[in-house]
Amino acid sequence: MDDERGKTPDSAAIEPISRALRILEVLNRRPLTTIEDLHRDTGLPKPTLVRLLQALMADGYVTQVSRTAGYRLAARVLALTSGYHPRDLLVDVAQPLMDRFTRQYKWPLYLATPQDMTLWMRYTTANLSSIAPDYLSGYHYRFSLVVSAVGKAYLAYCPRAEQRLMLAPLLGIPDVEDGQVRDQASVDALLAEVKAKGYSTTGSIQGDRGRGIAVPLWEGRRIIGAISMRHFRSALSEAEVVKRFLGPLQDLSREIGSELKNNKKAQARAATVSAPPPGQRKQP
Predict the structure, then answer these.
(1) Is the full-model pTM beyond 0.70?
(2) By three-state DSSP, how is residue 82 classified?
(3) Of all residues in the chain, what percent carry a pLDDT higher than 90?
């Protein structure tokens, strides 16, 4: 039996949860895991491991294949990940960097990522800006692919096959924002211009006081979204925005991509539970 003396009630209650999660992490590394594997990787006493495994099996998170083969994860562990997506990690990484940008430059930023063949807003700093030209309609806002700055920035750099799939439903019909009817040739010319400039801007929309300037967001060589800064059209010309803000916006995009890569590496390292040094057992 583990010695719980000297621990506060809170820590005594939390410790079994922490240990159970460590067991799930180790089980996730192999198709089959024995008690000896768990003991080596976690440093927990074998009686403690057996007791926790029995609780996890009773709740449907673990199953025992056999006494010799050991244990494996059961289907219920999938419920632990259903609410988390890689996009959430991107927002976690991007949020403080985007907040810093808006506090420094005042104008609001918008982060968009692809889902269901379109681009959706994932985060905005509009609430931090006292000069935001508009407040887009929340985190379920869908951007126009061929009018919005983020839409064009993403389309210009995404793989050709993905670009074709995203555009197919839009060609030959009036766009919901500017009413224009586009064919493949006109869109190709539009996106070629974006790539030549290295950025995109919002198209002309009747009644829209704001303009966005957007750049692609990369994870390594893979485009994962786009980020834009919006400003009043009457306050700044496109040339002024490019001169003053394109460089900082591109720097921000690179920083988010770099931090995302580093964060994923750190998560991978944390997921690997190292064995205790020879002759030294982790404290139970």
Answers:
(1) no
(2) coil
(3) 54
